[in-house]
Specification:
The complex is a heterodimer. Chain A is α+β, with helices and mostly antiparallel strands. Chain A folds into two domains: 203 residues, Four Helix Bundle (Hemerythrin (Met), subunit A), CATH 1.20.120.1730; 165 residues, Histidine kinase-like ATPase, C-terminal domain (Heat Shock Protein 90). Chain A is 68% helix and 9% strand. Chain A has a five-stranded mixed beta sheet with strand order 2-4-5-7-6. Chain B is globular, with a radius of gyration of 13 Å. In chain B, strands 2-1-3-4-5 form a five-stranded parallel beta sheet, sandwiched between helices. The longest helix of chain B has 13 residues. Chain B has a single domain, classed as Rossmann fold. In chain B, 46% of the residues lie in helices and 19% in strands. In chain B, β3, α4 and β4 form a beta-alpha-beta unit. Classes of the chains: A alpha+beta, B alpha/beta.
Chain lengths: 507, 125
Amino acid sequence: MLRSVSARIAAVTLVAAGGVIVIFTLFFVAERNLRSANNATTRAADVSSVGLTLRASVTQLDSAFRAALRERNGTTLADWHRAAAAWHQPGERLAVIVQRPGDVQHVHEIETLINQYVDDYGNPVLGIAQFSPSTAKSADVSEEGRLRIAQITKRIDSITGAAARSAALRSRHADGFANRVTEAGLAALIITPLLLLFGGVWLMRAVARPLGAVVSAASSVAAGDFEVHLDEDDRRDEFGALARAFNRMTSALKTNREELVTRAQRLEESERRKSELISIVSHEVRTPLASILGFARLLLERDLTQDEQRAYLRIIDDEATRLASLVSDFLDIRLLEDRRFPLRAIELDIRPIVVDQAERMLARHPEHTLVTAVGAEPVLVVGDEQRLTQVVINLLSNAEKFSPSDGRIRVGVSRTAAGVRVFVEDEGPGIPPEHADEVFEPFFRGDAAAAGIAGAGIGLALCRRIIEAHGGRIGFENLRPGARFWFELPAEGLVPEDDRLPDAAHV
Amino acid sequence: MAAETLRPLILICDDERPLRELVKAALGGAYRYEEAADTLEAERILEQDRPALVVLDVMLPGKSGLELLEELRGRPETADIPVVIISAWHGEYEVTALGSGANAFLGKPFDPAELADTVERLVAA
């Protein structure tokens, strides 16, 4: 079976060309044959005509002989000599126009017989008649002349008759052949268009059906259905290739659309989180601002003892610090999206950062209990003091926010094989397993909003960014009850800024 | 000591200690105070004492301030305790809070003198 459409087209074209060649060949052969038969007939007519002339010459010779024998005078003898020469021309012509080698031989035999008639019979008998007319006119002599002439004319008739018969036969054959060839040509004339018709249908079926499938699939794709699949397994022709290309196209379109949809959803989600963020920011900012403004107003308007003034200023200072950290958190949102994360690395002891911030947290929230597990020896790391402080504040702030009011918050610093580990434990609800992967994602707030816990969902994302910029790791474990958030900084992490070229100040 | 017990009891429920300190400083020495960092603690206090007024934040861990307000208004023995709502969520909660029976709503940041006036007026009424 022909697989490809181009092979089918080639086959149909070959059938058409073959049909035309057969028809032309047949008609050409018939024409050639008829012409050749016609030539043969003409030649046979020539042979008959020249044969008859020769026969007439022989009859004339016989008549001239008898006339000269009856009355021998100058006129009759002259006639005899003319007749004895006259037959040569038709005789020679006949020898030329007969075709079969046997016939040429026969013509030469006839010429010999005529010559013998003239030389061995006519001339001797006429010579005898000069001396003995009775002898020359005897019955025996006449009989011999008659026999000789009859033999000659019979031979001539035989040649002309054979030529006529052969020409007739040839002509009949030629007619029959021409008829058969014409019939074959007509048959070819009928069969070739039929073959072309079937070939056309065959081609159309090979093209139209798969083309229809492609058209309907393309319409489905245009209508947005990228699930359409063209059957490509059982076809090895151009349509198989088309089906495979089509299927690749639809699956690429499908992937693209899915990507676009995912991207649109992500954008939508990000937009939603941003607008949520704006309202959270205003809330988060107002809480410390309320304390700062409130106590400032009291300081301005009331007569306060020095102790009261000091206590209020302490609160204002704390809250302003908190506000500053909050603002820098918000400003740092852009760092979450930025590839670069500038760090100002120095060698520092991590312990005081953890202890100071934990105590500040406790001062704000004395309802909690604080447990610190920090050794007496300095725990040195290379890092950005401000950024690491920010991480500690964020982890403490989360622990505080998620703890019950009499909750115990445990913080610790320790050395590990890999470097330094800092942890903050709380007795809150822990992280639901379904949120484990998202906790460090920007703007992720989990169940915090539902639980009435303030925050922007920036803190942990920023913590991760800062710790990873230090070459460290951050993570958490659920305790029962509570959660432990930790980070580790490598012992061989950053190079202190003092030891570096100014250009290399970025990680 | 009799004067001590006569001073009206104010329950301050806010998860931020500086805010509780601010409320106490604003209201001054004319009142006694109980503090709660969340609504559960506030409920425990309310089982034992009957404050003259409650200063209540909205955004609190666990149950929100608005839920506590509705509970107070639902029980006959606490239904008429005056409640002052203070919240950073202006507007959004103000209508809800007043609809649920809050006597006053102050947005953060608030003027300490305004809070003192409001509380004094409600306690005296």
